[in-house]
Design a protein that fits this description.
Elements lengths: L2 E4 L4 H9 L4 E3 L6 E5 L3 H11 L8 E3 L3 H7 L4 H10 L4 E6 L16 E5 L4 H9 L3 E2 L14 H8 L5 E4 L10 E6 L2 E6 L5 H8 L4 E2 L21 E3 L10 E4 L14 E3 L6 H17 L4 E4 L8 H12 L8
Parallel strand pairs: 1-8, 4-6, 5-9, 10-11, 12-15, 13-14, 13-15
Antiparallel strand pairs: 2-3, 3-7, 4-7, 5-6, 9-10
Helix pairs in contact: 1-5
């Protein structure tokens, strides 16, 4: 039986489990992560096993400091500028592996790069106390809705892990933005909690977007992901019989009153509020029993890019791939 422990008293038991090569579900500012020692092959294998995650899909190595990141990866000047501006925070930087890096090859899916992030809050404190990077994908079964509360983790993975650290609802609510610097330009591999506009304001240049379906270079790049059991219908102007409705803003789709259930990401149209509510509201609508969740249009600007990315992957055909 999984134990759910408040973050205020969870540090020592969490470190003990990690030292033993076990897993811990920990809160971060983005979503809850399923953490294991990134330098321990058996611990990393347990992450893949617990999630049912394909092993060609790399994991993010979470660090407590830039110094810890430098032990496993090599920084170019632009990547360092991004780290210094946005860490700790919801941005992951894909970097060349440093020679002699102790991150296990299973965590990098055998690539010559490693995705690195410095989280905020309890997660960073835990990594600092543990003293080694933690591999930590979202704490859910592979391909399903990412958890933003300890209860959601316990409900999904409670029979597969021993400890969930309860740090309250995740304030950002969507995973980190993943970027890679190539030829002096920043490319976004996955939109997330730091918007493209924020990055562009820092570097004084436009960012590139990932185009098409190519090589898996980082987590969250597979076509089908973040999916409820119900199918998802995007940009809905009306609600069909038997559907639930994921709404946005003050104006409703036609027939909204007949929806099996309704959740509004943000009544006032605030994208930060919408991002924080996205996964929990998808989960609540999924539990309402509808075969389909109709989703009202969400603007693309700012955090809307990350929200729409998650919704498109949630709506993708389930037989394409799964992360």
């Amino acid at each position: 039986m999984v134990e759910v422990v408040p973050a205020s008293v969870a540090l020592e038991p969490a470190v003990a489990l990690l030292e033993a090569g076990d897993l811990v579900a920990m809160p971060t500012e983005t979503v809850y992560g399923l953490a294991g020692d990134a330098t321990n092959g058996a611990a990393v294998a347990r992450i893949f096993e617990a999630k049912g995650r394909p092993r060609f899909n790399p994991l993010i190595a979470h660090v407590a400091s830039i110094a810890m990141a430098e032990e496993i990866a090599s920084f170019d000047p632009l990547s360092r500028k991004l780290a210094e501006a946005f860490w700790p925070g919801p941005i992951t930087i894909v970097l060349p592996l440093r020679a002699g890096s102790k991150v296990h090859p299973l965590a990098t899916a055998g690539l010559d790069t490693v995705a690195v992030r410095m989280p905020d809050g309890f997660a960073r404190e835990l990594i600092g106390r543990f003293g080694r990077p933690l591999a930590a994908p979202s704490a859910n079964r592979s391909g399903r809705i990412s958890p933003t509360t300890a209860a959601a983790v316990a409900d999904d993975l409670g029979d597969r892990i021993r400890l969930v650290v309860d740090g309250g609802p995740a304030p950002v609510g969507v995973e980190s933005t993943i970027v890679k610097v190539e030829d002096g330009q920043v490319r976004i591999l996955r939109p997330g909690g730091i918007s493209a506009e924020e990055i562009e304001a820092l570097i004084g240049a436009p960012v590139l977007r990932q185009t098409g379906k190519g090589t898996i270079e980082a987590p969250g790049m597979m076509t089908s992901h973040y999916a409820p059991h119900a199918s998802v219908r995007l940009n809905a102007a009306n609600v069909r019989p038997g559907e639930a409705l994921l709404a946005f803003g003050p104006n409703r789709a036609a027939g909204a009153g007949k929806a099996i259930a309704v959740r509004n990401l943000s009544e006032r149209g605030d994208l930060r509020e919408a991002a924080a509510n996205l996964f929990s509201y998808l989960d609540e609508l999924d539990r309402a029993g509808a075969g389909t969740i109709a989703v009202e249009p969400v603007p693309i600007a700012g955090l809307g890019e990350a929200i729409n990315d998650r919704l498109m992957r949630a709506a993708a055909p389930r037989d394409l791939d799964r992360t």
